[in-house]
Amino acid sequence: MDQTFRAVGVVGAGVMGRGLAQDLARHGHIIVLIDVSDAVLDAARQEIRDALRLHRLLSGSAGDGISAIMGRIRFTTDRAALAGVDFVIENVTEKWDVKVPVWREMDAICPPHCVFAANTSAISITRLGALTRRPERVLGMHFMNPVPMKRTVEVIRGHHTAPETIETAQSLLRTLAKDGVVVNDMPGFVSNRVLMLTVNEAMFLVQDGVASVEDVDTIFRSCFGHKMGPLETADLIGLDTVLYSLDVLYDSYKDGKFRPCPLLTRMVDAGLHGRKNGRGFYTYSDAEAKT
Question: To which CATH superfamily is domain 8-184 assigned?
């Protein structure tokens, strides 16, 4: 029998946090959405409302109204609000030094039974669990972007993760009509250990003048049937997130194959982060950036 959750905490109101809050609330969950900035939370509120309107328009859904769904989300900078959640999903920047204080504070605030999930693309779940007094209740849940449209989640078992914790996570995913594929903990797991190599090498192809951005993506779409090429995918993920993930993989494995392409570093330094801010390997309109 699936579990019930009083409330679910979502820490970090960036691209992934907004998508998670939207999907969880649309499926009936009470959400506490946390960020350090009121401005970020205001932008999240507007983007979630717009996304719900679009979903309702395209799907013709007769489910809960937008006001009812939005009413299930508490937008707050007060982390003490996590004291009332049964499950928390952390989505902050993929930098270890940023995550450490967040995880220690979550551990101090959340009730002892609360499960902690890291929505990370590369960082070790075992290492994150070691920051807490509940490593057996810590796991990874790598959601894909855009969260409401992706039906499969990479679930990562850390060294101390208990079977009951995995089942609790699977129970939550079932309420979202999502499937969890359980893998063991190594930096990058399955998806990003392979994907980051692909997008990074595609960037080297552009840097080395082998092919244009458009031609690289066309080959992957047309020859292999991929819905998106590797550079379009990098823009969707966020070029800054790709760079942080490669840095984690390079540091974790000490393997030169994960060395970030200098073109990627230069683009991130220039503020070209992909869809999230409208410019990456491609340029996006405001409407395109939100899809």
Answer: NAD(P)-binding Rossmann-like Domain (3.40.50.720)
Q: How many CB atoms lie within 10 A of CB 33?
A: 28
Which residues pair with residue 238 across a beta bridge? none
Tell me how far CA of residue 116 lies from CA of 66, 100, 110, 258, in angstroms. Answer: 28, 14, 9, 28
Assign domain 192-289 to a CATH class. mainly alpha
DSSP state letters, 105-172: HHHHHS-TT-EEEE--SSS-HHHHHTTSS-GGGEEEEEPPSSGGG--EEEEEE-TT--HHHHHHHHHH
Q: Render 25-55 in DSSP notation, one character per residue.
A: HHTT--EEEE-S-HHHHHHHHHHHHHHHHHH
Type of residue found at 3: Q
| pLDDT tens figures, 224-269 | 999 999 999 999 999 999 999 999 999 999 999 999 999 999 999 9
Q: Indicate the length of the chain as a whole number.
A: 291
Enumerate the domain spans of the chain: 8-184, 192-289
Q: For the segment 38-88, what is each residue's pLDDT rounded down to a tens digit?
A: 999 999 999 999 999 988 887 766 567 999 999 999 999 999 999 999 999
Same fold: 8-184 with 192-289: no
pLDDT of 121 reads: 86
pLDDT the model gives residue 58: 77
pTM for the structure as a whole: 0.89
CA distance 57 to 61: 8
Query: What integer is the mean pLDDT of 111-140?
Result: 96
Tokens read off for 4 = 């019930």
What are the CA-CA distances from residue 75 to residues 71, 103, 172, 173, 274 (Å)? Answer: 10, 19, 21, 22, 26
